[in-house]
Amino acid sequence: MTERRTAFHHIVATLEYPMFVVTVAAGGERAGCLVGFAAQCSISPPRFVAWISKANHTFPVAERAELFVVHALRKSDLEVAQLFGESTGDAVDKFARCQWHEGPGGVPVLDGCDWFAGRVLDRFDSGDHVGFLLAVLDSGSAARAGEPQLSYQDVRDFHPGHPA
Fold it and tell me: Strands 108-110 and 29-35, how do they pair?
């Protein structure tokens, strides 16, 4: 078992997958975090799933949220990734440290980022993370879609605000 676990960790440590910032709002609270576990999971209808760590400050707000805003990060968004990945909402108001506006349903939209909104269809426990299945709404911005994406390898040395 140890060999398989070691092999798995060596494999995933070298993968290039995109990083996102997910923002949510519920009950007068707003929250957001850096997300590495996320993917499109259906073409028609358009669906996306984002996993949030149960240890993350964003998790209890996400559990009550009806809408998510998913921000696709580009290489030039490293500071945004650092803010939402290394800071915790337990100690810092991340939204006081960046530019944003209210998006669909009052969910924060980070200015300058590509983004889309999704309505939560389902939640499923995946271990230390919960997956949130989103029905993609016809809203968002793809102004920077041609720019290189920010990947796990770009942020792997971050010191997370919470353990995974």
Answer: unpaired
